[in-house]
Amino acid sequence: GGDTYYLQITTDGERVDGKDSTGNPYVDYKYSLPGYDDEGHQKQLDFNAAKDRPLRKEAFLKVTWNKKKGVTSYEEVQPKQVPKKAAEKLGV
Questions:
Q1: How are beta strands 42-49 and 70-77 bridged, if at all?
Q2: If we measure between CA atoms, which residue out of 88, 78, 83, 92 comes closest to residue 5?
Q3: Smallest Cα–Cα separation from 38: which of 2, 82, 92, 90?
Q4: What is the pTM of this model?
């Protein structure tokens, strides 16, 4: 559980190369972007995308943010799915 925020990917993210506990290499992309809740309140959101390529630029994401864990999940949404006050802040 947690709070829902909406954001737009505006950067390629920072590539992070690492190794998992068994020594296998992996690639993450680190992001730090402003997100907005359905009332238009802003929160700086830091999260990693565990993918071998950056998230699609200009994509809109719905993220779940938890006070103890930070961003716990995200999913791409269409611009029309972003609540009005958050959409205004994102310039949709």
A1: unpaired
A2: 83
A3: 82
A4: 0.91
Element housing 89 (H / E): helix 84-90
Spatial contact of 12 and 56, defined as CB atoms under 8 Å apart: no
* Residues recorded for the chain: 92
Residue of 43 and 52 predicted with greater confidence: 43
Query: Could you tell me the CA-to-CA distances from 27 to 1, 17, 23, 61 in Å, in that order?
Result: 27, 5, 13, 20
pLDDT, tens digit, 9 for 90 and up, residues 53-86: 899 999 999 999 999 999 999 999 999 999 999 9
Unique residue bearing structure tokens 């954001």:
7
